Amino acid sequence: AAAFVQTDSLLKLQDELGKARLVFTTETGTAHIACALDCRMVALLGGGNFGLFAPWSNSTRQQWVHNRTPCYHCNWYCNQDEVYCLTSIQKERIFSAIDAVLGVP
Questions:
Q1: What are phi and psi of 45, to 5 degrees?
Q2: How many CB atoms lie within 10 A of CB 49?
Q3: DSSP for residue 74
Q4: How far from 105 is each of 19, 35, 42, 54, 60, CA to CA, in Å?
Q5: What is the mean pLDDT of each run of 10 residues along the chain (105 residues)?
Q6: Count of alpha carbons within 13 angstroms of residue 81, beta-carbon side
Q7: How many angstroms separate the CA atoms of 13 and 20, rounded?
Q8: Number of Cβ within a 10 Å radius of residue 56
Q9: Is the alpha carbon torsion for 16, 18, 19, 24 positive or negative?
Q10: Cα–Cα 20 to 30 A to 94, which of 60, 75, 85, 86?
């Protein structure tokens, strides 16, 4: 079962991430902590500053899912009708990443 966990400190976030079977996030701060802890993690990554801070991982237990669009590296000044670098990620790729991460011992 999925759970959304809200914490009020980084230490509590660290504890919750360590207990999670899978961390699924679109927030890179959470993703970085999950990677540092070598948690099973799938993160959706947009193109605003792709490559500057992410993607990175400690093992195959982390997967960053992204979809390169013509407007990549926009520095989050999106001039599109929607944030296509995120909204155009196919759900099959997300589910495939989740399956891959959960399959790693």
A1: -125, 125
A2: 15
A3: -
A4: 15, 15, 15, 23, 10
A5: 86 94 92 95 91 86 93 90 93 97 91
A6: 1
A7: 11
A8: 12
A9: positive
A10: 75
